[in-house]
Specification:
About 50% of the residues lie in helices and about 5% in strands. With about 400 residues, the protein is mostly helical. The strands form two sheets. The protein has a five-stranded antiparallel β-sheet. Strands 1-2 form a two-stranded antiparallel sheet. The longest helix has 17 residues.
Amino acid sequence: MRRLAPALIAGLLAAPAAAAPECGGDFGAFVEELKTEAVERGRDADSVQSFFASVRRDTRAINADRSQGVFQRPFLEFARMLISQDRVTRGQRNAEAHAGLFDRIEAEHGVPRGILLAFWAFETDFGAVQGDYNTADAIITLAHDCRRPELFRPQVFAAIELYERGGFDPATTQGAWAGEIGQVQMLPSDILDYGVDADGSGSVDLRTSVPDALMSGARLLRGKGWRPGEPWMHEVALPDDLDWSQTGLRTEMSVDEWRARGVEPRHGSLPDGDLSASVIVPQGRHGPAFMVFGNFRVLFEWNESFTYVVTTAYFATRLEGAPVFAAGDPEPGLGPDAMEALQRRLEARGHDVGGVDGILGARTREAVQTVQEELGLPADAWPTPALLERL
């Protein structure tokens, strides 16, 4: 499930507004505070009252927010869970069925069909599973909850503006538990900024219109920095004597510099030698390896989970003709409880791991890599039971 982008939050919070309502406490009082703030933000008072008329606290959304164990799975397991031959086949069929639309998207926004097909597949199984949470209830409930209110509160005001424009019904609009709507799961604020009426119906309908959904998703990625004509990922083979501390997103070098260090494509050829790139090893030096580029980093604007983004980027390459990756033979990793123990020990050493959650995210990886360097271990950012024991 998506974790909202900090840049998005910052932009919305920059608007003139009253002091933010505190999280928690009486839900009805919280809603009244939101109403006051919405009017102070420039929304029509009658529309605000109407928007909140049917709102109810949704405990299902809170439970879903606390049950994201899927992101604790390592890359190989996660990828095999999401990518089946059936899904590859349906992705290829959708590419053919909507070839004209994808041609138009690539001409207007420069986003390849593989990328959009991958998100379309993972977010809603090509539109089949879009979520049955009442969107208004979910985002207001999560804004009221004290776990991550700063992530969800801005979406409430975006939804009100969508309602005023006629593109949102607070009583009937449904989607994912965290407020995403439609076939590629876009947040209310993203729909405001990037929604496209691609089918000419007179409205943006991300639930039933494939053209609207895919064109809007492409416009979002382009708006977040996607560079047309540039790659996002290529599988590579690495030499045994590579300096593993140079792997990971914290290090960027030109393709030619990586070649000079013995990095070679596992299939096909690497792009232009001057292009800046990083090399990532999601399960350490004995597992799959990928060279990733600037466009790969843009994908984190869609979802902040490292494993999700790597899997999506890889699936996009598969849909565009790349072979199955070489799985290798990674060292055993850590289960959720052991990962939490590792994160606590890393925090005790002064590292910011982004919170103890049992998930090997980008910050935990950086901390692991730093500690591996300090201990004289191969610094591939893959935590093992042996590393936990050393700490």
